[in-house]
Amino acid sequence: MSGTKRTEPTFQRNALAPALLAAAVLFLAPVLLTAGWGIVVLFVVAILALIVGWFAVQARQWVWAAVFAVIAVAWNPVFPFGFDGLAWSLVQPAAAIVFLVAGAMIKTPRD
């Protein structure tokens, strides 16, 4: 082994793991909704949107915080809006892409 020293990253992506989980659920949402798992999809997406939104607040990335507040409201299981049809089916993968992009972009300095 050579004497080179590895440098530690200067930032961390805390939102990446919950964003990946939410994206997986949203990509599978059309199948899950037809199988009667709609309420589970709403709970998982809303909770993970709040988690990713919190990491955005910690990173002081206010636009992402607002985006995930809207996602949490749209997918809220307590007072569901009852969206359905083709438009709702198209919004699911679009939201998954938003989660993936945010998970990659939201980063905080490492102490």
UniProtKB/TrEMBL annotation:
Matching Pfam families: DUF6804
InterPro entries: DUF6804
Annotated transmembrane regions: 15-33, 39-57, 62-79, 85-106
The entry's keywords: Membrane, Transmembrane, Transmembrane helix
UniProt-recorded name of the protein: Uncharacterized protein
